Amino acid sequence: MTELSADKFITPKFKPANDSSRLALELMVDQLFESTLRTTSRGKAIFALCDVIGAVKHSEKGHLAWQLTEDKFYDAPYGRAIAEKLRNKLLEIGWLKIVQRGRRGLCQVYRVTDELDHSSIELEKHGMSSLVDVRAPTKVSASGNKRKGKRLRHSLFEPQISDEIAKIQLINEMMAQHPLQGAEAKVWSSCYRSFNEGRLDKGGRIYGKWQLVKPEVRLAMTIDGEPVAEIDIKGSFLYLGNHLSKIPIKLSPVSAYGTDLRL
């Protein structure tokens, strides 16, 4: 049997972009739950349904994954309970179908029916997702397999984490004004930071969706019409170390590849 991979994850990200879209989503939620949800839960279910429809809109193959662990909803406008309730209801009425059961090494993959393929519903990002993730240290099993650590609550790292969030907000404000632009008017204008050792002074880096693009495509991008370049930081360690040591060294004008650096 062919193994499937999801090309889009359902994650807390979207909200209705206008009143007509919100009304359409409210009617869908009321139809799904037969108007039994309380006002607060109804609002949360609308956010959750936005994320399902948003994933469908951005999926090329229609293969979706839906991770429902508690840490995925720390900064979301709804919790795991609402997400599970919505998923179970969508499965029950047949709007969502399991096309691959989750098992060791494979995620569970879903496909939606036409009822959730709503091109008329307009969505936008709500900005409630965390700009900074802190994860517990990676776990290594006896067989050598690595498992990514779970997300940790921000409250464990206050007040320092607020400074880190402010830094990413500043970067995103700059990127919104000067976005990365690719072919076919595709734009990348935001990023987030992840710390992977359960601490803020080690194991952190910035991530953005442009990093998923092939290198040759990335190098064809522009910022304000100017071409971009990529710097190999690991390949620059010797130079950076020498710079930090403040001990000058004489470098040959000819590189290791035989190129005259003065040209």
What does this structure look like?
- By secondary structure, this protein is an alpha+beta fold.
- The chain has two domains: 118 residues, Cyclin A, domain 1, CATH 1.10.472; 114 residues, no CATH class.
- It contains six helices and 15 strands.
- A four-stranded antiparallel β-sheet has the order 11-10-14-15, with no helix packed on it. The protein has a three-stranded mixed β-sheet with strand order 7-12-13, with helices on one face. A two-stranded parallel sheet has the order 1-3.
- The chain is globular and about 75 Å long.
- The N and C termini lie far apart (57 Å).
Topology (SSEs and partners):
Layout: E1 8-9, E2 14-16, H1 19-33, H2 39-58, E3 64-65, H3 80-93, E4 96-100, E5 109-112, E6 123-125, E7 132-134, E8 139-140, E9 146-147, H4 160-177, E10 180-181, E11 187-188, E12 192-195, E13 204-207, H5 215-218, E14 222-223, E15 226-227, H6 237-245
Parallel strand pairs: 1-3, 7-12
Antiparallel strand pairs: 2-6, 4-5, 8-9, 10-11, 10-14, 12-13, 14-15
Helix pairs in contact: 1-2
